[in-house]
Structures are given as structure tokens and as C-alpha cells.
Amino acid sequence: MRATTPMPHPLHRHKPYSNFVLCFDLDGTLIDTAPDLVRVTNEMIAKLGLGKTHYAKARQEVGYGSRALIANACTRAGFDLTTEQLEDLQKQFLTRYAETIADHSQPFHGVMDTLKQLRRGGATLVVCTNKPGYLARPLLEHLRMTWLFENIVGGDEAPRSKPHASHIYMAAGLQNRTKDIIMVGDSYPDIRAGHNAGVPTILMRYGYTAVKHHKLRPTIALDRFRDIPLALEQIQKKPLRFRSGS
Fold first, then answer.
1. Which has the closest alpha carbon to 200: 225, 177, 227, 221?
2. What is the pLDDT of residues 34-61, one digit of tens each?
3. Overall number of domains in the chain
4. CATH code: domain of residue 127
5. What is the side-by-side strand order in the sheet with 151-153?
6. Is 25 one of the annotated active-site residues of the chain?
7. Catalytic residue among 25, 27, 32, 36
8. Whether residue 24 sits in one domain with residue 82
9. From CA 86, how far away is CA 89, in angstroms rounded?
């Protein structure tokens, strides 16, 4: 449940976001990881004698994980992949991706400046990603972003990963239970997790989802990351609550 946002004390007006805990998805929200993930997918299917997969279609599948990337690429190529082959390629994928995790991945435009602005304004920033923690942390470290976040919780570290509400609660931290938690993401697991947790959601339209944005029912949808501070002002003026899902 969201706490009612108090009026800022005059001494704290320079910290306008101090009552917010912003839970950020990683892939497709903070960082454009598709170039590296699709590159490694192509390296894996090349072992089967297949050519490069369709980039735009693979980009929309990033949120479903390495197994889906490989399987769908093979399906598009008309290759009948066995379960044994898929399991073997997935293991190789994870090893190769960990070795070259940030070769071409970069924060989306405006992300770094906006995160710094939010942090200066008193917001608590955390990462709530279905990416395994052992991959999420090195990626953020490579891109010199780790220092911006109070907490980083991967999908393998939460009691249940998004879209389950517990992932958001763990990332936000019990010490922040009286603050206004907001989930910021680009796809169904992010927005649904926010609904299940009963917190407002911000959808980044530039992300990886293939689902029509209006069907996801976010509190606010944005085209630019730098507009998040304006979205927070809007949420403060008109707090929205969601009933937890089943």
C-alpha cells in the first residue's frame, strides 16, 4: 500500500523526491542490452549452422530470457531444436554473455543524468530485474552505474520474481515501507508486478515489449526517461492506487 505523500517541510524543498522509492527494471528500461543479447544469440545458433536471426523480433523477446531467445531464433529459421540442444546452448549462452556482457550495451538516452537528478533530489533508487543478479551487477559495474542504487535484486534472488509483488517489496526494502514505491519498467512483468504490489507504475515506451502499451495499463507511459521527474510530480498531485492481483 502507498503512504500518503506529506507536504514537504520548507527545509526539505531542495529534496523533492525524498519520499519516493523508485524500482527500476534493467533491460529495456535503464540499459539497452539487446545488441549484446542478440549478438550472443546469433553466436549460439551459428553453432547449428544457422544465419543471424531477425534483430527487431529478437529485441522484443529479450525480456523472456536466453532460453526463449535461442528457441525463437531457431523457430524462425525453421530449425527443429531438441531439448538437449537447447539446454546445452543456453549454458554456453550464459557463459559467453557473462564474458562479453557490456561490449555494446549502453544506458538509454537521458538515463544517467536523470538518475543523478533523482538521487540529488532525495529519491531512493533500486533495481528490480528478472535478470540474474550475477549478471545484473557486473553489467551495472561495467557501465559505472552501481553507485546510483541502494539495492539491486535479480530474479534469482527474490522469493518470486516479477510479476510477483514480493520482488518489488524486497528491492524497495522494509525500511522504506512508509515511502511511496513506484515501479518503472518497459514490459508486462514490470507493470503487472506494480499492479500486484498496489503501487503506481511508469512504462517506458522505448523498451522491448511486443504488447500494446495501452493493454498494460500503466499509471503513466513515457517516451523519454528524462520525463520521469515530471511524472513523479503528476503522481504526487493525483496518487493512484491499484488493487493487488491474484
1. 221
2. 999 999 999 999 999 999 999 999 999 9
3. 2
4. 3.40.50.1000
5. 151-153, 124-128, 20-24, 180-185, 201-204, 220-222
6. yes
7. 25
8. no
9. 5
